[in-house]
Write a structure and sequence with these properties.
The complex is a heterodimer.
Chain A lengths: L1 H17 L12 E7 L10 E4 H6 L3 E6 L6 E8 H8 L5 E6 L4 E5 L9 E6 L2 E2 L9 E3 L11 H6 L4 E7 L1
Parallel strand pairs in A: 1-10
Antiparallel strand pairs in A: 1-2, 3-4, 4-7, 5-6, 5-10, 7-8, 7-9
Chain B lengths: L8 H38 L5 H20 L13 H24 L4 H5 L1 H22 L2 H17 L1 H78 L3 E6 L4 E4 L1 H7 L3 H4 L4 H5 L2 H17 L9 E7 L5 E13 L2 E10 L1 H51 L4 H31 L8 E4 H18 L3 E7 L5 E4 L1 H17 L5 E11 L6 E9 L21 H7 L5 H11 L3 E7 L3 E9 L23 E5 L3 H13 L3 E5 L2 H10 L4 E5 L7 H10 L9 E5 L4 H10 L3 E4 L4 H13 L14 H8 L1 H25 L7 H16 L3 H15 L3 H21 L5
Parallel strand pairs in B: 7-9, 13-14, 13-15, 15-16, 16-17
Antiparallel strand pairs in B: 1-2, 1-5, 3-4, 4-5, 6-8, 9-10, 10-12, 11-12
Helix pairs in contact in B: 1-7, 2-3, 2-7, 3-5, 5-6, 5-7, 12-13, 13-17, 14-15, 15-17, 19-20, 23-24, 24-25, 24-27, 25-26, 26-27
The chains are: A alpha+beta, B alpha/beta.
Chain lengths: ~170, ~850
């Protein structure tokens, strides 16, 4: 955990230089994630749209953990939610995360740490299909701390994510 | 509190361990249960279940959404234009994927692993999963193809409706049960926890109560301990002995007030210091250090616990003084300590020294007195004898009436003086323990009459009347030591006369009772005077040596102050008692009680005329080894007209007695070859001619038991040495006249002059020269004999022989010394012999000067 913190701290420093540009590229492929609401960096109208490449370009976090929804230990790679919030210049108190089936959960910004959660886009080094809870899945490092094995955290672990909305 | 009810420390420690262990076990169980509860709660909190219900119900929702998406194709109605069909395909695919994903979750999630074991869930899941897998292929296919197959898909999807329903129902039912079971579990754990917590609480309460009890007990016992300590401290503080406590290293940890005053240190100054440096004197320090080291290393204790020892200690000023020390070890908080009790005995030791030296001085004084008495008596008596002898000779010459009176006065004074000297000598003899009691047959009437007669002169001189009488029945004949009895009575009567003027002195004799056990009659003699009397305070002290009355009276009356002391000693020696009752100014009664066994009346020996020779001429045998004695006796007997045959030892005496019948035999006792007693037995036991003739013992040994032995051997009479003509005549008259029992002859008081006359000038001179030569030789031999060992029997014989001659020549001192020397030679007492040899030389030198001029 401490090691992870170290890595993330380094990443954050490096990244803070990049976001200084305060602009987002236009997505080249199909957007997989649309961020709306109170954000300061946008690329399409008032939204920030990300395709797979854009997400991959952002600093990544990796968890090796089991989940209650899968078998055995899996490796998740994704963008820390904190990084993404920074990338879109979010000024929100709450993040509303919505799946393709319109299932929505609230994630208070105060609960977001530099390490957890991540918006995973690789499961065991492979992109996730919709049938495998892809393409995006908010994942916490469940095995590292009992804190992450609570009902609230499980409910926030939303899969088939495709929208984020920043609200007060 | 009864102390005996307290548990022993070991027992209570055991109990504490047991309780501790029990509590620990309870605690472990409680903690384990607590953990389980926490885990249960955690499990419920972390809820691995996610929102299981949501997921399960969502299966059905998403299934319906999927169906709904299919229905958009309008397969319920026959295909009627597909204006917006292209747009609906992605939605169909998305809804399928969502449903697929949901079912996939059911299939693979760990969360549902238990559920999947259940057939009512597994069966429908398999059916649904199957359909989805088949449909997936169609979904992944070409759009047009998919469009064409939607009908088929819809129908088939519709067909699994009840299975999908079963999935949610079975799942919900399972999780409801599981949740129930878990709640029950938790409840059970909680109640168990509650039970254990209760038990723990109870145990803790019990332990608390017990601790409370123990605490109270400890408080009480510590109060007792404090009291004991206070008492102990008071004891220590008021102890007269120093009490010093040190640890095993010898450092002082307690120093009581007595120690402070004895050693001169204050307690605060000495605490923690080494005992050895403070109070052990330098000369004992090495021994002290060795002892401490031995105790520290090996635990050996030589003084500790061994009672009191005397040592020396040192005060602060460096003064070394004697102490009495007792050490005891104890354990204080697990450390060994030594407690020393020290008593300053310097005063006691000084007192003891004082006492010892006082005793030594007293002993030395007494010894000096005894020696002085002995020496003085000899030194005074010898010249006094000379004076008296010469006075007697002077009395035989022709004198004027006045001169006769003067010589008479001088004789009286001389005799008084001689009596005094004899008294002193008697005391010295008593002190030396040389007192033996004779058993004669005595007529008390005659004895008392003699005394009264002899004292009537001096009584008359002081205007006193003197008389005596029997009170009660007369018992004149008794067995007694007449000489000693005479001396006692003479002393008392003399005293009575001395202290009475113009009065009366009466002597009463009375058989006053009997001795308890032996039934011997006790005779009481009372000497009653009407003299000055004795103060009550003096009635005890009058019997002490050198006690005189008021010095003025003493001077008037004269006396050594020894008379009553001697009387008392003599009385005690005879087994009697002596005392006085007196009233100052009225007179005194001195009484003497003696146990005197009655005796048959003695056949009274009719005294022959001492001065006339035996009328009948006797045929006599004289057996005597000492040549001088032999000559003297022979000469004396021959002068009286007897016929004398001589033998020089017992054996030839016996032979002579066997061969010839003599009228009497005079037998010396101590002789070579065969002594007189043996010879007598031979003569009496044999059939010789003189087997039944009277035998007279001639011996220097006048002691009663010796005389008895003579009688036992068959002798008829006894003549003591030195021999006098009178004694010889008396003894011969006795045995030849009646042949009766042995009576004691009185030792002769013959002087040299008498012997000279008896023997004749020429023979006397010869004897004297020979005696002088032999004595010179013997004195020389004695001197060297003192450091020679081995056989000295000839020297012993010689001592005996010359002693006999010395007696004959009127030298009792020389005789006494030589007899002592004889004993010393026999016992090989060389130290004693050396002293005697020296004394013999002195005595001989003095005596020799007094010998008549013979050249």
């Amino acid at each position: 955990m401490r090691r992870i913190t170290g890595i993330f701290a380094g990443i954050m420093l490096a990244w803070s230089g990049l976001v200084a540009a305060e602009h987002l590229d236009m997505p080249q492929g199909d957007p997989v994630l649309i961020v709306t609401g109170k954000i300061s960096h946008t690329n399409v109208d008032d939204t920030a749209r990300f395709d797979r490449e854009m997400l991959s370009a952002l600093p990544a976090g990796t968890y090796k953990t089991s989940t209650i929804w899968t078998e055995g230990e899996n490796t998740f790679v994704g963008v820390p939610l904190a990084v993404l919030l920074e990338a879109v210049g979010a000024e929100a108190q709450t993040v509303l995360a919505t799946a393709i089936n319109d299932y929505t959960v609230e994630i208070p910004v105060s609960s977001i740490t530099p390490q957890a959660p991540i918006i995973a886009y690789l499961l065991n080094d492979a992109p996730m299909s919709r049938r495998q809870k892809g393409p995006l899945w908010i994942v916490y490092p469940y095995d590292s701390d009992p804190e992450f094995r609570s009902e609230v955290v499980y409910s926030r672990s939303i899969w088939q994510l495709d929208r984020l909305e920043m609200v007060e | 509190m009864n102390l005996s009810k307290l548990r022993s420390p070991r027992q209570s420690r055991w109990v504490v361990w047991l309780i501790g262990f029990g509590l620990f076990a309870f605690l472990v169980v409680t903690i384990a249960l607590g953990r389980q509860v926490v885990e249960d709660l955690e499990q419920q909190r972390s809820a691995s279940s996610d929102n299981v219900q949501w997921t399960l119900t969502q299966v059905e929702v998403e299934y319906l959404s999927f169906l709904n998406a299919l229905e958009h194709f309008g397969h319920t109605e026959p295909r009627s234009g597909t204006e917006e069909g292209d747009i609906d395909l992605p939605r169909l695919r998305r809804q399928f994927d969502i449903f697929y994903s949901r079912v996939d979750t059911l299939k693979s999630a760990r969360l549902f692993a238990d559920l999947r074991e259940k057939p009512e869930f597994a069966m429908p899941l398999a059916v649904v999963s199957n359909l989805l897998d088949e449909t997936a292929r169609q979904m992944d296919g070409d759009d047009r193809e998919l469009e064409r197959q939607t009908d088929d898909i819809w129908r088939r999807a519709l067909a699994i409706r009840s299975e999908v329903r079963s999935l949610s129902v079975a799942g919900l039912d399972f999780f409801a049960r599981q949740s129930d079971a878990r709640r029950m579990d938790t409840a059970r754990t909680l109640s168990r926890l509650a039970a254990f917590s209760g038990a723990l609480l109870l145990s803790l309460t019990g332990v608390s109560i017990w601790l409370l009890f123990v605490n109270r007990k400890i408080r009480r016992s510590s109060a007792e301990t404090a009291q004991v300590n206070a008492r102990m401290n008071t004891v220590l503080a008021t102890s007269l002995d120093a009490v010093i406590v040190v640890n095993i290293d010898g450092q002082i940890i307690h120093f009581n007030p007595a120690a402070e005053s004895i050693f001169g240190y204050a307690q605060p100054d000495v605490l923690g210091k080494s005992i050895g440096d403070l109070i052990v004197p330098p000369h004992l320090r090495d021994a002290h250090d060795t002892g401490m080291e031995r105790m520290q290393k090996k635990g050996e204790k030589h003084v500790v616990g061994k009672g009191r020892v005397q040592l020396e200690a040192m005060r602060a000023g460096g003064e070394v003084f004697p102490v009495e020390l007792a050490l005891q070890s104890a354990t204080d908080d697990g450390n060994e300590i030594i407690i020393g009790f020290i008593r300053d005995i310097s005063r006691q030791v000084a007192d003891e020294q004082e006492l010892i030296s006082a005793r030594d001085r007293a002993l030395a004084g007494k010894k000096a007195k005894d020696e002085f008495l002995t020496v003085m008596s000899h030194e005074i008596r010898t010249p006094l004898n000379g004076i008296l002898g010469n006075l007697s000779l002077l009395g035989d010459t022709r004198l004027s009436t006045d001169q006769k009176q003067f010589t008479r006065n001088m004789e009286i004074s001389g005799e008084v003086l001689l009596n005094h000297v004899n008294s002193v000598l008697d005391i010295a003899r008593f002190e030396a323990g040389k007192l033996s009691v004779l058993r004669d047959t005595v007529n008390l009437g005659e004895l008392v009459q003699e005394i009264v007669d002899s004292q009537s002169g001096s009584a008359a001189e002081r205007g006193n009347v003197i008389e005596w009488q029997w009170i009660g029945e007369a018992q004149p004949w008794v067995v007694a030591d007449g000489q000693k009895l005479r001396q006692i009575l003479l002393n008392l009567v003399g005293n009575a006369i001395k202290f009475t003027h113009q009065g009366r002195v009466s002597v009463e004799v009375e058989v006053s009772g009997r001795v308890e056990i032996t039934d011997v009659p006790v005779t009481e003699f009372r000497i009653i005077d009407t003299g000055v009397g004795i103060a009550a305070a003096d009635t005890e002290t009058v019997f002490e040596d050198f006690h005189t009355m008021d010095p003025s009276i003493g001077r008037v009356a004269g006396g050594t102050g020894l008379g009553l002391g001697i009387a008392k000693r003599l009385t005690k020696a005879l087994g009697g008692d002596i005392g006085v009752e007196s009233e100052p100014g009225e007179g005194s009664v001195f009484w003497v009680r003696l146990p005197l066994p009655p005796s048959a009346p003695e056949k009274i020996w009719q005294p022959v005329n001492d001065t006339s020779a035996q009328s009948r001429s006797l045929d006599l045998l004289v057996v005597e080894d000492n040549e001088i004695n032999l000559l003297v006796i022979s000469r004396m007997l021959e002068k009286d007209g007897h016929k004398v045959t001589v033998a020089t030892d017992g054996k030839s005496g016996v032979d002579a007695a066997d061969a010839h019948r003599y009228d009497a035999i005079l037998m010396d006792i101590s002789m070579p070859v065969m002594d007189g007693l043996t010879a007598t037995r031979h003569i009496r036991g044999g059939t010789g001619r003189s087997a039944d003739v009277p035998i007279v013992a001639v011996s220097a040994n006048v002691l009663a038991d010796a005389v008895e032995k003579f009688s036992d051997a068959g002798m008829n009479a006894f003549v003591g040495k030195p021999i006098s003509v009178a004694a010889l005549r008396r003894a011969l008259a006795e045995v030849t006249g009646s042949g009766a029992q042995v009576t004691s002859g009185h030792p002769g008081d013959g002087t040299l002059e008498e012997m000279r006359t008896d023997l004749g000038e020429e023979a006397f001179a010869g004897l004297l020269t020979r005696f002088a030569d032999e004595t010179d030789r013997l004195i020389g031999r004695l001197k060297t004999a003192a450091w020679q060992h081995g056989d000295q029997s000839s020297l012993k014989m010689e001592c005996h022989r010359i002693a006999g001659s010395a007696a004959l020549f009127g030298m009792p001192e020389l005789r006494d010394v030589l007899i002592d020397a004889e004993v010393a030679v026999e016992h090989q007492a060389h130290d004693r012999l050396e002293v005697l040899a020296h004394r013999a030389r002195g005595v001989w030198a003095t005596s020799r000067r007094k010998l008549p001029d013979i050249s």
